[in-house]
Amino acid sequence: MQGLHLRYKRLGTFFAVIVVLFGSSRLYKYCSSNPTISPEIATSVSNIIPKEPEILETTLTLGSGGSVQKLLTSFGVTKEAALQISNAFSQYQSHRTLKSGQSFYIRYKKLEDGVQIESLQAQPSIDQKVSVTMIDGCYVGKAEKINLTPTVHVFEGNVRSSFYSSALKAGVPSKLVQEAADVLSYVVNFQHGIKAGATFKILCNALKNDQGNIVKIEQLRFVSLHTNGQRHEIYSFKDNGKIRFFDSNGNSVVRSLLQTPLNAAKLCVTSGFGVRRHPIHGFSHKHKGVDFGAASGTPVLAAGDGRVVSCGWYGGYGNHVKIRHEGGYETLYGHLKYINKGIRPGTHVSQRQVLGGVGMTGSATGPHLHFEVILNGRHINPMKVQGLPTFKLTGGSLKKFEAMKQQTLKEVVEIIQTKAVVAE
Ligand SMILES: [Zn+2]
Question: Are residues 184 and 202 in the same domain?
Fold first, then answer.
């Protein structure tokens, strides 16, 4: 009885193999020039392939300069099948727009002559999914639109070691963190002006998908930073067709001098963590400037537009750059690891232009930037310099700004309240 059962089973496998081989040869003919496999060959391989291979799944990632076709052939797919899949895919998504790092979810079988793809899926853009599926032996492509809905979103959190890491932890996308830090860096010293425990809110226009996840940030609209009893509030406002950032009084936040002449986003706060061997915290007549503890090599930025007066080795300052700005201001940057090529006495520099990298040349015990501000020949506390606003709203524009500001603050409160209700 058992023997008979076994024979039936073998017979079943034999038919299954015939069906698979006949099936694939018949169906392939519409798509490729695959030679048809004769029943004789099918019979002879029936002993080699004992059963229908199972469907496996994995995710493949496109390397830089790679293509769908190459990705598949290197995975073991035949050149011909890889080309068919690639062609079906490109009907909906041009290969040129694919970026390295793009992932492809695939379902496949391992056959004697290589890997056979059952289906491939990718989401090359935030609003479209593309899939290629084997239907009757042919690869057929399909695109699916993902519905995105405009929304207004508020991110909020506390600063721990740095604004950047804390904001990322609060779910803020890195590009938005950088933008918020950039606008804040005109008015806040990102190391000494922010204390651990500071709170921030970021309001933006965004797009969300059907699952309610934010998939794209469209516009930073408001950022607030509350620290040391000080509240910094910055609004984006469209005036004369141009979006600019303003403080709550309608003054442009873009000032003649930066408070933080380094990539503000990544600086650690003084009282937080990670600032080791931080030399001197504040300004004094003896110290003449403020120190920013930062990793060696961190780009040092020109605080404002100006002209280089001196640069190079200068005693205890080590490698230094000194810039003369408008309004009688000068800024000095000390202990630099290196000074960028092109930075020479007489060179014109613009605000945020990279002067060199943070180092510990001269008398420094650890990597840090020594930053001085000189006004009409006298050293002043860089943390007290606000610089001049480059633009101020007046008249009708200021009135519109005021209305927008009230509306924005109302939205922030409402969104936070709604979130709190949802969380309950
Ligand atoms: Zn110093």
Answer: yes
Instruction: Tell me the torsion sign for CA atoms 209, 211, 216, 219.
Output: positive
**E strand or H helix at 419, and its extent?**
helix 395-423
Expressed in angstroms and rounded, the spacing between residue 333 Cα and the centre of ligand 1 is 9
Domain's final residue, options 146, 172, 202: 146
Domain that holds residue 363: 276-391
Looking at the structure of the chain, the number of domains it has is 4
Between the CA of 369 and the centroid of ligand 1 the distance, in Å, is 7
Domain containing 114 — which CATH number? 3.10.450.350
pLDDT tens string for the chain (424 positions)? 444 444 444 444 444 443 343 333 333 333 554 444 455 555 555 555 567 889 999 999 999 888 999 999 999 999 999 999 999 999 998 888 888 999 999 999 998 888 999 999 999 988 899 999 999 989 999 999 989 999 999 999 999 888 888 999 999 999 999 999 989 988 888 888 888 889 999 999 999 988 888 889 999 999 999 988 889 999 999 988 889 999 999 999 888 899 889 987 778 776 433 444 445 556 777 788 989 988 899 999 999 999 999 999 999 999 999 999 998 999 999 999 999 999 999 999 999 999 999 999 998 888 999 999 999 999 998 888 877 777 899 999 999 999 999 999 999 999 988 887 776 6
The C-alpha atoms of residue 301 and residue 258 are separated, in whole angstroms, by 9
370/330 same-domain check:
yes
Residues 161 and 265 in one domain: yes
Tell whether 411 and 367 lie within a shared domain. Answer: no
Task: Supply the DSSP symbol for 350.
Answer: -
- Separation of 197 CA from ligand 1 center, angstroms? 25
* Element housing 40 (H / E): helix 39-45
316 Cα: distance to centroid of ligand 1 (angstroms): 10
Among 33, 52, 71, the domain boundary falls at: 52
Same domain, 125 and 230: no
How far is ligand 1, taken at its centre, from the CA of residue 228, in Å?
Answer: 23
Exposed (0-12), middle (13-18) or buried (19+): which is 11, by Cβ within 10 Å?
exposed
Residues 265 and 163 in one domain: yes
Q: Are residues 300 and 402 in the same domain?
A: no
Please indicate, yes or no, whether residues 383 and 403 belong to a single structural domain of this protein. Answer: no
Residues near 72 by Cβ (< 8 Å), separated by ≥ 6? 60, 81, 82, 85, 86, 117
